[in-house]
Amino acid sequence: MTILDKIVAHKKIEVAARKEIVSLADLQARPLFDKEPVSAKAWIASPNKSGIIAEFKRQSPSKGLINGTAKVSDVAEGYFKAGVSAMSVLTDQEFFGGTVDDLLAARSVSPVPIIRKDFIVDEYQIVEAKSIGADFILLIASCLTPEESKKYAEVARNLGMQILLEVHNQEELEAHVCDKMDLIGVNNRNLKTFEVSIENSKILAELIPNEFVKVSESGISNIENIKELKKYGYKGFLIGENFMKTNNPSKAAKEFISQL
Ligand SMILES: O=P(O)(O)OC[C@@H](O)[C@@H](O)c1c[nH]c2ccccc12
């Protein structure tokens, strides 16, 4: 059993339990449910913006504890002021130490598009994402069948949210890409083995159809990485650990963005 299998198995149990406590109607009645989502595509692909998607991540299965003290509202406000194009908030508690309250806290201080970073295995989580003010969602190809990813993308679209489809290899890309997706993210980290290689983004770049905004995810730690990835058509760069491992993540993001 890989770590991804464990996460997905746990997630299904967790979502079943949440459904018992908060109904879909309850989610739809929350004030943020009616918020108009901000276009992640527009912010990320804009030539006047940094393209940096900065993540709030306390811990991960591959790295253990990354930052146990940073306050999400401080970081979210700082990321916004630093000029990020979007923010990613991990909402998985069991493996990443995040919560939906983290996203709510980020939302209350930041106008940038926010992605709910979680392992979506049920439509309920998409409605929940909308109810906490998320603008776009992540669908991870390696957790879903192509039918599921398409169905979930439709659910998100019907709620006005955009979709970042995450793939790790050619097979996943070819099986899951469809016109319901908005952004395609190539994860440089293999979620089954944790191996990281930026080369992965370079290899898959030419296989991603031009109508999608290309995003490179994970293992990005310097400006050279960004310059290189831009040559391959990438517009979005998802960075977590490189900022979160410092004692002042938003300062790290600001310094990084000022060098672009
Ligand atoms: O911390 P990094 O190496 O900069 O990576 C950020 C982000 O790409 C990573 O957290 C991530 C990419 N896809 C995911 C799916 C689930 C959880 C986490 C992720």
UniProtKB/TrEMBL annotation:
Catalytic activity as recorded in UniProt: 1-(2-carboxyphenylamino)-1-deoxy-D-ribulose 5-phosphate + H(+) = (1S,2R)-1-C-(indol-3-yl)glycerol 3-phosphate + CO2 + H2O
Indole-3-glycerol phosphate synthase domain span: 4-255
GO terms of biological process kind: L-tryptophan biosynthetic process
EC nos: 4.1.1.48
Matching Pfam families: IGPS
Pathway membership: Amino-acid biosynthesis; L-tryptophan biosynthesis; L-tryptophan from chorismate: step 4/5
Listed transmembrane segments: none
Domain of life: Bacteria
Signal peptide region: none
GO molecular function: indole-3-glycerol-phosphate synthase activity; phosphoribosylanthranilate isomerase activity
Keywords: Amino-acid biosynthesis, Aromatic amino acid biosynthesis, Decarboxylase, Lyase, Tryptophan biosynthesis
Similarity comment: Belongs to the TrpC family.
Entries under PANTHER family matching the protein: INDOLE-3-GLYCEROL-PHOSPHATE SYNTHASE, TRYPTOPHAN BIOSYNTHESIS PROTEIN
Record HAMAP family: IGPS_B (MF_00134_B)
Protein name: Indole-3-glycerol phosphate synthase
Organism ancestry: Bacteria, Pseudomonadati, Bacteroidota, Cytophagia, Cytophagales
Gene symbol of the encoding locus: trpC
